[in-house]
């Protein structure tokens, strides 16, 4: 499969799996006074921050709520690991937020505010929007702050780990020559589609049955209008809830193996300009129109040079990630006060 059809997972949950925290040599000893005198002990410290037990507990409860909302549960033997990873995430976030520039913070804040405004506009009613926020277990300001922090941290980490990495033309060409099979492109289709989402805009949790039923009826109405000859591109612009394609006329070009099975099967079964039946996936209801089919081919170097360089930059950054995280851990004097306090898991709802 072409390695550039899917984005390299450079950040991978803020690289938690790569950052294996160990107690620093200068970590403070756990207090030997009665525990009830310290209801909210500090778990980790660093330059400009400290993380308390209550912060980790809150992060764990939010994470668990998201798992439950997806119909799953955290296995008993994995809860300690989840808490440990969440502590690492909190530490890394505290560091990266301090490294963010004013411009990065301003740009991300505007983007998040725009997304919230769009979600509010898409909601069936102000009450439905408020209900979705409440279901997340947070206030709107907490949702906003969390989204800002996550996006800022991602931008800083990407900036820091890719800065100064340059891939020469010769190196890119060698990769191309050494991996001919990676540039064989199978048959592809170009489609336009309308997504009527069955996920809540902010939390991405499934909508309740009554709202899902209304979405299905809307999809049926739109399909009927498309089959009667209404401009498909205009219907995309008016109704599609896919942020990844709406501004591009709802278009995607892809080979087999790229999309979710139901979407892919429908797309490849269509004839040019044919409109599909309603296709249901975990994202919602899709109405697909086939625009064009492309035969299999071998990509020329000029077609993929930029993508090769981007891929190799990301690969170098990923390889350097463990050393980089160790470096900033040292720079910010990170210390775990008592790793044993991280392990006990909170009661989890079933």
Describe this structure in words.
- The protein has 350 residues and is of the alpha+beta class.
- 49% of the residues lie in helices and 13% in strands.
- The protein is built from eleven helices and nine strands.
- It has helices spanning 12-15, 53-69, 79-99, 102-122, 126-135, 140-162, 169-178, 209-227, 232-239, 261-269, 301-331, and strands spanning 42-46, 49-52, 184-185, 188-197, 251-255, 279-281, 284-294, 297-298, 335-336.
- Strands 5-4-7-6 form a four-stranded antiparallel sheet, with helices on both faces.
- α2 (53-69) crosses α3 and α7 (169-178) packs across α11.
- The two termini are 40 Å apart.
- Mean pLDDT is 85; it is low at 1-33 and 344-350.
**Element pattern in H and E:** HEEHHHHHHEEHHEHEEEHE
The total count of helices amounts to 11
Side by side, the strands of the main sheet go: 5-4-7-6
Mean pLDDT: 85
- Strand % is 5-15%
The N- and C-terminal alpha carbons lie at a distance of 40 Å
Question: Concise description?
Answer:
By secondary structure, the chain is of the alpha+beta class.
Features:
single chain; 350 residues; 4-stranded antiparallel sheet; globular
